[in-house]
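4.2 Preliminary Data

To establish feasibility before requesting continued support, the project team ran the inverse folding procedure on a target of 487 residues. The structure was first converted into the token representation described in Section 3, and no sequence information of any kind was made available to the design step. The complete token record follows.
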């Protein structure tokens, strides 16, 4: 390799390696006398799904073509480690893929994402999974092309996991799942250290992207046909805060021209051609009155708020290090509902946190009844090694947790279907996403409240925002009928 020619600055350096890989992959294609394919399998949250769009962009620039099947020539798993079962999934897939690799000499297997940030995982991969070719983490996703080039040009396994992000690289290619909607990172990492959660350890310290970079990205997405964006961050409400990391302490420091999240939202609303704005996730402790005001005022902001409560018991919330009480959460919800009576509220709840008593659990049932969530994602507490909760006393038995989980699930489902029903008979803007999987005469889309609607239509409607009457509620979704604009 001629090291003198390699650009030092990003993203030029990565474009250089994309071109280099393209040449090598072209040789492989000629040798195999066919196209070479890739498959990205994503576990985990929206952040990971969005990172996968970046991985796909880079793989396409190198000359690979996408397939859904893990029989591809380049298979990459973007992993999640938020709960133990996310971890187990990966090992299941790896077992299956070993056989495929023995039949395909061109096959490359890569692992990346949150799980790879854990030392014990990388050790296991090194020892037991010798057929994995490339391993990288959450901080160097942008370097995929460079890592692939190292692998292709040396034929050696490449492992590069960084402890923190050294740089934030802008303007790399992406491939969107949908042409008309996508996520946009506004910040990376998390500083909250909820006591059960591994995310701060695997995603690193909180860092906000510059507002001008975010707006530039959104303008370019809109110019390319995007109508809906989801602003992404583990805690979007603390966007723009500047932190000092010296001495290992995290301290917020003043910044004169700090752009807060509500200010950023107002700026995003001004982008012409953008129709819908969503964001996630909001931590209740940082949700400001200013945000409620901006949400209520701006028609482009979807009237849907994901506001994870985690537990209804103040005791448990304290042990979780969530930094709000049951009462403060309920007051916040009241304020939100007063400003936007029709808003959809969704949440995340953990059952079986260490020390959770029946009384604590009943507080969770109570908050669910009081708030009446449109949708609640319920999780059984999963012990994550290295987090403070993992060594807390009174871990709850499986039997008790399962019983509580079942009772909670019944309750949230019952409320959720009642809430969904409130839209019956109304006319809503529906952004059409795809042809219905079961019945090709139908299309499927979502309202701003994130309710799924199926109605008669064809593929020409995909990506269009159309008026639909919600005729029949079937549990958590609707069957609707398109209304012509002049009716
Ligand atoms: N940043 C987001 C959530 C990211 S993780 C927030 O603060 O809301 C998504 C959800 O996974 C969390 O809201 C929580 O409900 C759940 N979760 C995180 N760690 C967990 C664990 N150890 N066991 C069970 N559920 C967990
Ligand atoms: Fe995890 Fe809490 Fe950060 Fe969310 S805010 S990612 S739950 S530590
Ligand atoms: Fe999982 Fe990482 Fe998201 S651990 S939930 S993919 S931030």
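Position-by-position output of the design step:
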């Amino acid at each position: 390799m001629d090291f003198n020619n390699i650009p030092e600055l990003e993203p030029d350096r990565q474009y250089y390696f994309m071109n280099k890989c393209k040449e090598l992959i072209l040789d492989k294609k000629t040798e195999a006398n066919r196209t070479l394919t890739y498959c990205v399998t994503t576990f985990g949250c929206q952040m990971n799904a969005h990172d996968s769009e970046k991985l796909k962009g880079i793989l396409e620039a190198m000359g690979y073509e996408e397939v859904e099947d893990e029989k591809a020539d380049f298979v990459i798993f973007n992993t999640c480690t938020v709960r133990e079962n996310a971890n187990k999934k990966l090992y299941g897939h790896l077992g299956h893929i070993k056989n495929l690799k023995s039949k395909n000499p061109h096959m490359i297997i890569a692992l990346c994402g949150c799980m790879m940030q854990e030392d014990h995982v990388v050790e296991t991969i090194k020892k037991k999974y010798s057929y994995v070719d490339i391993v990288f983490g959450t901080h160097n996703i942008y370097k995929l092309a460079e890592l692939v080039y190292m692998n292709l040009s040396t034929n050696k396994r490449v492992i590069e996991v960084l402890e923190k992000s050294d740089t934030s690289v802008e303007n790399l290619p992406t491939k969107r799942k949908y042409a008309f909607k996508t996520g946009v990172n506004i910040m990376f990492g998390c500083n909250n250290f909820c006591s059960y959660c591994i995310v701060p350890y695997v995603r690193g310290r909180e860092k906000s992207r510059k507002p001008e970079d975010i707006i530039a990205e959104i303008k370019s997405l809109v110019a390319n046909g995007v109508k809906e964006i989801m602003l992404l961050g583990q805690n979007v409400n603390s966007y723009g805060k500047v932190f000092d990391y010296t001495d290992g302490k995290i301290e917020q420091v003043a910044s004169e021209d700090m752009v807060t999240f509500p200010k950023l939202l107002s700026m995003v609303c001004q982008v012409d051609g953008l129709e819908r704005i969503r964001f996630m996730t909001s931590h209740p402790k940082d949700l400001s009155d200013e945000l409620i005001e901006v949400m209520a005022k701006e028609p482009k902001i979807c009237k849907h708020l994901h506001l994870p409560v985690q537990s209804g018991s103040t005791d448990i919330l304290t042990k979780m290090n969530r930094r709000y009480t049951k009462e403060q959460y309920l007051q916040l919800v009241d304020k939100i509902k007063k400003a936007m009576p029709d808003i959809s509220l969704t949440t995340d709840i953990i059952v079986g946190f260490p020390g959770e008593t029946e009384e604590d659990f009943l507080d969770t049932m109570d908050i669910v009844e009081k708030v009446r969530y449109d949708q609640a994602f319920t999780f059984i507490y999963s012990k994550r090694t290295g987090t403070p909760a993992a060594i807390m006393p009174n871990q709850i038995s499986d039997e008790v947790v399962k019983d509580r989980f079942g009772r909670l699930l019944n309750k949230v489902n019952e409320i959720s279907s009642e809430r969904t029903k409130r839209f019956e008979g109304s006319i809503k803007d529906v952004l059409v996403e795809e042809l219905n999987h079961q019945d090709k005469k139908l299309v499927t889309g979502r309202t701003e409240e994130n309710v799924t609607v199926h109605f008669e239509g064809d593929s020409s409607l995909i990506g269009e925002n159309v008026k639909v009457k919600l005729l029949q509620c079937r549990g958590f979704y609707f069957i609707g009928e398109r209304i012509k604009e002049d009716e």
